Amino acid sequence: MLRIAILTVSDRAFQGQREDRSGPALAQAVAERGWKVLETGLVPDDQEAIRTALLAWCARPDIDIVLTTGGTGFGPRDVTPEATRAVLEREAPGLPEAMRAASLRITPHAMLSRAVAGIRGHTLIVNLPGSPKAAVENLAVIAEVLPHAVQLLRGDPDAERGHRHPS
User: Fold this and answer.
1) What is the Cα–Cα distance from 108 to 145, expressed in whole angstroms?
2) pLDDT at residue 53, as a whole number
3) Percent of the chain clearing pLDDT 90 (strictly above)
4) Which of 14, 57, 50, 60 is nearest to 127 (CA)?
5) Helical spans, DSSP H, in the chain
6) What are the residues whose beta carbons fall under 8 Å from the beta carbon of 39, sequence distance 6 or more?
7) Which domains, and CATH codes, for the chain?
8) HSE-up of residue 15 (Cα within 13 Å, Cβ side)
9) Phi/psi-derived region of residue 14, left when phi > 0, alpha when psi is between -120 and 50, beta in every other case
10) Predicted TM-score (pTM) of this structure
């Protein structure tokens, strides 16, 4: 069972000018996979606010993955990747590469995503788009590998079993 936190990054949603639809859409997609949402949050497009939330959640031993939604584009206030990189200890470039590659089959705008992913301590952080549809689609691209990623981060001795070839 994966334990997830979801952080929505949006000035307008934070200010109450627009409903947060991405966070709830991700929470539903997570629940449909049998994973548990332990925390949700909403912050403005502000590096310090994003960084503070990420650091707090990564310090918790009960959160395996933090999914962010929003702030990954070209807009002047889109700073989620920068805030995420500021807290990462190790990047995991294959996840956003896979998401962009799959999304390019749907829209050429996928190449405008600046999403990043990586590890802080024993927690995986993954940036997802701000659109509810795109966030759920991108999560679906990487969902199959997330249980194994968490198994590796937890130091599970059985994690390597799937990597070995029979003798």
Assistant:
1) 25
2) 98
3) 93
4) 50
5) 11-14, 22-32, 47-58, 80-87, 94-104, 132-142, 146-153
6) 5, 6, 57, 63
7) 3-163 (3.40.980.10)
8) 7
9) alpha
10) 0.95
